[in-house]
Amino acid sequence: MTPLTITLTVDARSVSVAASSSVAAAIAVAGSVATRRSTSGQWRGPLCGMGVCQECRVDIDGRPHQLSCQTLCADGMRVRTAPQPPKVQP
Fold first, then answer.
1. Which residue from 24, 50, 56, 21 is spatially nearest to 37, judged by alpha carbons?
2. pTM of the full predicted structure?
């Protein structure tokens, strides 16, 4: 039987999401609004949601430049965004 929720790590924070969630969704659940910095230092985050803009790139299990909007979460996955991304205020 497939689990309904899975747990992964986003920037050293444990996050539980629905098994069919994208990594971009898990990053949002973790409270982050950005995934990386541009070459000019500006914060970037998911924009198009379909892999065209490439703004949602993150490090997944040690592999850099993975598209978080196009990657499904896996139990135990380790996701790393840019250092100290801004947080969503509750």
1. 56
2. 0.85
